[in-house]
Structure formats: structure tokens, C-alpha cells
Amino acid sequence: MGENIIPLADLRYAATPPQVPERAGPPRGLLLDSLGRPLRDLRISVTDRCNFRCSYCMPKEVFDKDYRFLPHASLLSFEEITRVARVFVAQGVRKLRLTGGEPLLRKDLEQLVAQLAALRTAEGAAPELTLTTNGSLLARKARALRGAGLRRVTVSLDALDDAVFRRMNDVDFPVADVLAGIDAALAAGFAPVKVNMVVKRGTNDHEIVPLARHLRERYGARAVLRCIEFMDVGATNGWRMDEVLPSREVLARIAAAFPIEPIEAGVPGETAQRWRYRDGGGEVGVISSVTQAFCHECNRARLSTEGKLFLCLFASRGHDLRALLRGRRDDGRPWSDDEIAAALELIWSARDDRYSALRAAQAGAPSRGERRVEMHYIGG
To answer: Could you tell me the pTM of the whole model?
Structure first.
């Protein structure tokens, strides 16, 4: 490795076990943090590995052949993930998203999907079960994932032009294979498919309109483009403010080609601002974490592949839920689900994270003494 950048080694083992109240009652079903934000969304990383090396997430000069990823024994098992998810659902979570790394690299992922699909809220409803993927393996996995109970798929696709796409994924992977994955997902019943494009000024911003045109002409309302501002996640992606294309400019470019109009958010806390084509050709969205921070309504928590809970995409430290899953009380008894739920309540009630809002207020990334966790470790 060109530099001894080991931000995750410290993060993996620095977290301490959460505090557990002496008396743990049943889950409340709705948790609020210190700013009044509910816990509704859990993003679950199932692997820290990826077969792409996108510069904004896993730059090749850092994550090279010598980089030490987590050993398999450190990963949460499917049963442990399902147990954690069950506790979160009991505490009010209504959406579960599987992420990575690249989640489809996790062997037998369909088994985990089936376990999570069987979960129910206190009212008897199934939580929304979704997955974000780079699409490289989706063509061969889509039907099995749908059969196991997955309900929605989001595909990351940063360019339509093959040469630009190959440069951005930095492993020479062809765009045609990702497009085939989108086709397979739609054929399997995943409609609409969301297509996430991370936009970097001077790198792929010229691809916004061509990709929007392709998706609306080929799929119409069955595929939704969402353009994401380049974010300062982690410590290795070389983020610079001058490479951020504000969402207002993204919308202006799309509107110049296809007239659009705003529409209301689908659910509270939704990250994307939504717009529809006036001619009925579907919709587009923008996610403006840099220029229009939405921390005030963020209702998401993130679980790393080894069981650390992070309360913000830009966090530096986590809470070690794996210690409760695999550990025991002083009397030798395993921690119960109610006790883990009570620990989660303490963690969430103390949450005051609002990194993007502070970044906007300070006109730059807030200064911190610790490295922020990398995106591939906890998902986007």
C-alpha cells in the first residue's frame, strides 16, 4: 500500500460494548434521539469487500491486493444479523436495507433475505426489505433474491458511456453488464428500480443527461435516476468541494433537456428530493447531502458487517452490538433481546449527530480528531 492508511483497524476494535440498563422492559416501538428524530431505517452491511474500486469509495491505491479485509469469523452470521434486525424492528424500524461493500459477494445472501423477510412489526406488517448493489452480479441473482422475499433494488451506475464507467469503477468492468442487471431486476419484478449516480464535477457530470435520457426512454417509470452529490465520507476518497456539483445544477441540466416539476416526498425522512417529467416519462431525484443537508430529519442507523452500530454516515466511532450478541452477563447468562433493545434505546436517545449540517454551517468539513468510517464498511 502506498500509505499506511488503516482507518478501519482502529475503528473495528475501538468500540466498547453498549451500556445495558439494570432493568430492561419490553421494546417501546418508537425511539427518539436527542433532537427528536425517530429510528425508522436500518442499513445492514453484509461484507466490507467489493469487486469495484470507485475512487469516491474504495480507491485502488488504498484498497489494493495487500489490504486486509475482515476475516470471516469477525462477520455477523445471518442468524446474528436477523436477531439484531428483529430487535430494531421491535424498536420502530420499518425499513431494512442490505449494503456492503458489494452485498451480492456475500455467499448465500438469499438465505439472509428469507430470514429478514419473515420479520414482522408489532402490528404484523413486514418491514420494507431493500438492497443496494453495483449491479455486477445482479443478472444472475435477481430472480433468487425476489423469490427469497426482497422487495426493492437500488443499482449504483455512475455513467452510461462505457469508457467513463470503466474508469470510474477502476476494474475495467463494462457498463453493459450493469444494464443487464437492471433488465434482470425488472424482469424479476423489482419495479421501479432506483439507479444511483454519484456525480463528480469534471469526471462524470457530462453523463447526467445521457443517463437520464437512456433510463426514461428504455424503462419509463420503471427506473428512477437519483443523482447524489459527491460526499466527504471516510478519509481516503480525496474529497474536494470544487468537485461537488450542487443538485440545483443537476436539476437545471435535466430540466433543460426534459421539463420537470417537483413532487412530494414518498415517506418522512426520505433522502431524495423528487421531480417528475411533465410528459409522464417517470421521475428523477437528487440527494444533496453537501449543499442541502437533511440531518434534521435523518432517521437512519447503520450496522457494520462485524456488528458495530453507527448513527451517522460520517461517524468516527461505533457501538459494539456484537459484544452483546456473543457475550454474556456477569452471571453467565446470554444477553436477552429485551436487554439489547434497552441498550439500543440508550444509544439512540443520546444521538445528536448532524455532521452535514455542521459542514454547511462551517463552509467545509468539520474538524475532527478521528478518521471517519469508510463507506464500504457501513454502506452508503
So the answer is: 0.90
